[in-house]
Design goal:
Oligomer: homodimer
Structural class of chain A: alpha/beta
Distance between the termini of chain A: 23 Å
Largest sheet of chain A: 9 strands, mixed
Radius of gyration of chain A: 19 Å
Number of helices of chain A: 14
Chain lengths: ~400, ~400
């Protein structure tokens, strides 16, 4: 195995970006990553573009990666779009990692972009419902929101999780987002405010759901050979990069943790570490209950203890294992295919000690986890990365 | 570099498949490849699903790969959709190759599927127009058909290529397809018939354009270690697997060969071979002129000699370098994201000596090339594979 590092990260602000078209969102994120890395467009050997729902919204389904990179002068190299629903960005990073591992490339670009506003909310919601197997779910009204309602109810039934604990996830992530100028939402929430907000699908209220978001994010991965030769800026080492699918079953249980279990087992084994070694984590919570399930699935706390984990303050800044220091999907925003790459960006920022008021003191090991799609009781797929602060910083 | 082999191939019939939904098309192709390889679903370590236009047509944009593989019991492994317009299938094979090269996997599945009929021809044509940068082309009426008309005119102007020579590509590929029971069209054409057929965009007539097609194709790639351990069936060695993009430019020339030049240089270097070593080729001709340009771009003949190459019979069965022995995109059909994988299937079939009446006698080296998307005078991207008949056969 080759040693692989992240040396450049970039992102647009997440939120409503009426002045940027799809191409400009991608260009801006990639250009920022190139500048951050101190590399030229011609240094890039291969590029993976995460892109999931905006094709449906803006009628530009195909070759979006080529379109974004053309004006930056990135050409001749393989440019491939990857899609795994909400986790398209996580898989863009994973494919970049594998491409370097293959020995054929030394510098790989992973980026993701979406523009979800501008054609009406209904169009965006339509696009999102494609993340569930249409035949099994969407046609019966099981949109993502409705599914999260059922999952929340099941978790409450199985483990005694409370709606207040779910609200605490929303409040915590908004508090973190208030410290992140690139986050979509910065105004703090209260538990009372979350619980009395409009109901989406009982017991899930509006602030327990992620928003619709425009945004792009990019990361540049390099081999150790390239790192040494070019003296790259503030490299962060990738200790583990894994991908997995769930284990859908006709006898399904709505709140399955199997996808988390598979990817975290692979990831911890690859890194030679366990959940107690993680100093900071970026995980995917399109709904508050998902963050609680992720604590459990990744072993941050015992099964069923996720609600109490957030209540204890363990996952808050200042706690034992701060989670979603950038505000997470709920408050940084969820520009679908950009999310996984933005998570990597936050962990790299934390490893570099450059997170400013949201910095986790002394953080040396960070974890990124993202899931995408949903069918038959389990997320369709997931990626997990474990990053390490390197001695060069 | 590890040695990688193709050991299983499968495809549906290409054409109009009203009795199969999208999931069944994918399942059928993958199941056929598993049976062909003599492998079990649990042998697969990673899967890449090419899928380009059917999401737009059938409103199932996301997680199609997971949906296809679920009922076959392929789960827990990474399943990723890849898209590079018409070349999504070629890149699925390339990513499978890179995944094995990474050392993390020994068995990788590449498959592609589309269902383009069933929601009306206009819906399919709309979806196809997304393969061109919408801002630059589609909004000005430069659909794929119109673009091919302009490219044909330019090639005629530059090199003296004739419409009769273009018609010969259509006639030849239909003659080959008549020997392929899985091809969409089997009724032979005449040059007169092609020239007097309805005009699409001068000088391109209907039989010079590929049809709209339903279909799926799959290929299973394995490492040499796995091959030896499991005594895999009729393996065909991959000598080269490369990907590239074109070099779009504002000062563009409509009939650029740059994408072909880049991928063939990389591919021939990797294989240590040249165009004279190729015994049979599967190339992408969504329009007849593209096959003529491919002869030139891949060095099968000198630049500008493509029209005379087909006229000489060199690219026909029985000629010096038979091209598109399965009928090609024009007559096998173009189930967009399945095409690149079906091309690999045809070359594997030829290398195994199992192509029946369309077998190229003594073929030892075969080449696959596919391009996808179009912007500013060049195809967006391309993949090229060179395969070798192995001594095990």
């Amino acid at each position: 195995m080759r040693n692989v590092y992240v040396t450049g990260i970039g992102m647009t602000k997440f939120g409503i970006l009426p002045d940027m078209n799809l191409r400009e969102i991608g260009e801006t994120a990639v250009w920022a990553a190139l500048k951050d890395a101190g590399l030229k467009p011609s240094d890039i050997g291969v590029a993976y573009c995460g892109y999931a729902v905006s094709g449906h919204i803006y009628d530009q389904e195909l070759v979006m990666g080529h379109t974004c990179l053309r004006e930056l002068g990135i050409k001749e190299i393989p440019i491939l779009r990857v899609e795994q629903a909400c986790n398209s960005g996580g898989f863009a990073v994973r494919e970049a990692f594998l491409a370097i591992q293959s020995g054929f490339y030394d510098v790989a670009l992973a980026f993701g972009l979406e523009k979800m506003f501008g054609r009406g909310t209904q169009k965006a919601v339509d696009a999102l419902s494609k993340g569930l197997d249409t035949e099994l779910y969407a046609e019966y009204g099981l949109t993502p929101g409705a599914t999260f309602g059922l999952i929340s109810k099941r978790h409450m039934y199985d483990y005694g999780t409370t709606v207040e604990q779910m609200a605490m996830v929303s409040v915590k992530n908004r508090r973190h987002a208030a410290l992140n100028p690139r986050a979509q939402f910065q105004k703090e929430l209260t538990i009372e405010g979350v619980l009395t907000a409009p109901m989406i699908a009982e017991p899930v209220t509006l602030p327990m759901c992620c928003p619709i978001t425009d945004g792009g994010a990019a990361a540049i991965l390099v081999s150790e050979d390239f790192l040494r030769k070019r003296n790259c800026r503030k490299p962060v080492k990738i200790l583990a990069s894994v991908g997995a699918s769930g284990s859908p079953s006709w006898t399904y249980k709505l709140s399955s943790h199997e996808n988390y279990a598979i990817s975290s087992k692979l990831g911890y084994e690859m890194a030679g570490l366990g959940p107690n070694d993680i100093d900071v984590a970026a995980v995917h919570e399109p709904c508050a209950i998902m963050e609680i399930m992720t604590y459990e699935g990744l072993g941050f706390c015992p099964m069923g203890e996720g609600g109490r984990f957030v209540e204890s303050g363990a996952s808050s800044l200042g706690g034992r294992l701060p989670v979603n220091t950038d505000g997470g999907t709920l408050s940084r925003g969820h520009a679908i295919a950009a999310t996984g790459v933005a998570q990597i960006g936050e962990i790299v920022t934390q490893m570099r000690g450059e997170a400013g008021p949201r910095q986790v003191e002394g953080a040396k090991i960070g974890l990124q986890h993202c899931v995408g799609g949903y069918q038959m009781g389990d997320a369709c797929g997931s990626t997990l990365h474990i990053l390490e602060r390197s001695s060069e910083i």
